[in-house]
Every structure is written in C-alpha cells, then in structure tokens.
C-alpha cells in the first residue's frame, strides 16, 4: 500500500502558529522520519492537533517553515488524516469507501475489490452494507481509517483515534494501526492514553504549551525521561 514517492521526512523548523493573537505553537522544531509510529502526547491545549494539521498541509504556519522531503507546499496525495470525530457520509459503509476511492482516482472496475481489501484490513467485513451513521463509534472510526487508506498514503496522521472508545473498540483501532505500520506507512498519532503510547509508539514526542518538551525512542522515554515535565507526565501529574 505504500505510495511510490516520498513526503518524508516531514520537518517543522522553528514553526509557530497563532490565531487572533493566541499562540498555539511556539517556535517548535520536529522531524518525522520513516519507521515505527510517532506518538504525540501531552495535556489538552499542548498543540498536538495543530501540529498534525500543519504536517498534513491543511494550515500554514504563521512563523517558521514546514517541508516534506525538502519541498515546500508539497501536494497531499501521499498523506491522509483522520480526525477524532470523523464525519460519515449519508450512505453505506461501502459507499463511503467507494467515494474515497473515486476521489483518489481508483478505476471504477477496481473499486469493489479495493473495498473488500480495505474492509478486511480495518476489520469491517460484513458491515459494508450498513448505513455508516448507524455503525458504532469504534466502527465509524475504522471506516474513517479505511477511507483514509483508500488513497494509499505514505503518511497517516491520526488525531486521538481512540478517544471515548471502550477497550474492545480501542484494541480494534490499535490493531489497525499496527497493521498499517507493518505495511510501511508512517503513522503519526496523538493520544492522551499513556498505555496506548507504550503499546504503539516507536518514538514519543511530549508537547506542552506549544513546544516539544522531549522527543525520544519510546523505550528510552519511559525508562529514563530526561526532563522534569516528562517525569511528571509519566507519573500522572498534571502539566499546567
């Protein structure tokens, strides 16, 4: 499923983002490389969603620079994003995926097979004929993942994909993330769940007040955090 040309690494260089005088990201620098999932953690308001939107190219920084494999303003055909509360089209699950395939330029004759493949990948076999808006929250999130994967992205950006889901639905989403990463797709996701971060991350990025506080391989981050903020966050203390 990996796209043939690369948008990686994605580099945010001294990036700032402000809205109506309120600074959301403050001279943040980060490089997203190929490999295991990068997981963004941090309290509400840390800037995680804004970072994902910048990496996708949905918004432009008010300061600094974002590049994709060294290019400015790279088209987003090799990137996809799934938001915390994805919008379902008023049609069946399969028709939602079929629409995404059409938008991605997949030939009409190939769409039914791709729908079956994507439903199998996200664990929605047998549910394609059901109205998308009648699916459970976890099923809708997996359908949103299937739609995002319809364009064969190289980079998949996920904003709190398991927020408010029960443990079974969370596990189903995590299984999809592992399967996607195993296919060579770079996953960058945000989460409030430290257990989920431990289970999925190859790299941890801790954000606070619009900046990267600490970035390290996951095992190192949890075993030997280098900053007081990281130690407090791992211990369940509030960062304010």
Describe the structure.
The protein has helices at 48-56, 93-103, 108-122, 137-149, 167-182, 194-200, 218-223, 228-234, and strands spanning 10-19, 22-32, 38-41, 63-68, 79-82, 155-159, 186-190, 203-208, 211-217. With 240 residues, it is α/β, with parallel strands linked by helices. The chain has a single domain, classed as P-loop containing nucleotide triphosphate hydrolases (Rossmann fold), CATH 3.40.50. The chain has a six-stranded mixed beta sheet, sandwiched between helices. A three-stranded antiparallel beta sheet has the order 2-1-4, with helices on one face. Strand 8 and strand 9 (211-217) form a beta hairpin. The relative contact order is 0.19.
The CATH architecture category equals 3-Layer(aba) Sandwich
Spatial arrangement of strands, main beta sheet: 5-6-7-3-8-9
Overall average residue pLDDT: 94
Oligomer: single chain
Helical fraction:
25-40%
* Count, helices: 8
- First-to-last CA distance: 41 Å
Reading off the top of the CATH hierarchy, the class is best stated as Alpha Beta
Overall SS class: alpha/beta
